[in-house]
Each structure stands twice: as structure tokens, then as C-alpha cells.
Amino acid sequence: MEDYKPAGFWIRFFANFIDGVITMLMAFLIALLLNDQEFFNNRLEETSRSEDIANLIYVVIFVIIFTGSKFKGSLGKLICQIQVLNSRDMTQISLLKSIGRAFAYVISAIPLLIGFMMAGWNKEKKALHDIICGTRVVYREE
């Protein structure tokens, strides 16, 4: 088994930030196509139909399918040169595990995002959803 350098909190945060920017760009394009005035009205209390569609598309295609494929991560993770692997043998995760990992994100988010912050203070740089699903986020080999 090769030695992989674990990806810490800040690089993972940046990858998720990139994912958020991409999702908002998708929502903007969808809002233009659907003429979704709710998206363009400056309101913060709830998401628009375009944002909901963009979030669903992004989670299904880029978070679940990309992570469970040869890409081994979302677009943000690809840009940041990090990948999601099985923690036991450092191999590509399955599509089923990728789906479970997406649901485990919710558990990481519930207690004030502490599940995500765990990647910053534990030795293996694992977030709560990584511990639950048996995954690791590591830097890609060049």
C-alpha cells in the first residue's frame, strides 16, 4: 500500500467552496433558462427552484457519481488535487459507498459542522463522514 498524504481541513474546505461556487453558477444558468424570477429577487429566507435543481444535479452527478468513479472526487476535489479512497486498502470507493458518504455529510453537518471540523484536529485528518464510511481524503499522486 502506497503512502498517501492526508488532505487536511483547509484544502477540503477550499474544495467544498469551489463546489459551492460551481453549484451557484449552475443555479444561475438554470434560473436564466427557466426565467426563475425568485432566484433573482434578493431574498435569503429560502432557496429558489433553480437552486434546488442545481443542488440536486450537483450532488447526484458530481458528488455521488464522480466520487464513486475513476475521478474519485467532486469537481472541487479534482481542482484541489485531492481524492476519496477506501481507508482500508486505499482503492477507489464504490458508487454505493459514495451514496452513503453523501448521506453521512448530513450527520457531519448537524452538530454545528463539528463533523467537518474533525478533519482539522485528528491525526488521520478524517471528518466524521469519513469515519462512518471508512474513507480517506488524500492528495493525488502526480
Structure description:
This protein is mainly α. The chain has one domain. The protein contains seven helices and two strands, in the order ααααβαααβ. The longest helix has 26 residues, at 9-34. The protein has a two-stranded antiparallel sheet with strand order 1-2. The model has no long low-confidence stretch (mean pLDDT 93). It has helices spanning 9-34, 37-40, 49-67, 75-79, 95-109, 114-121, 128-133; strands spanning 82-86, 135-139. The chain crosses the membrane at residues 9-33, 53-71, 102-121.
Poorly predicted parts: none
Number of domains: 1
Count of strand segments = 2
Q: How large a portion of the residues is in β-strands, by DSSP E?
A: 5-15%
Subcellular location: Cell membrane
Transmembrane segments: 9-33, 53-71, 102-121
Main location: membrane
Protein name: RDD domain-containing protein
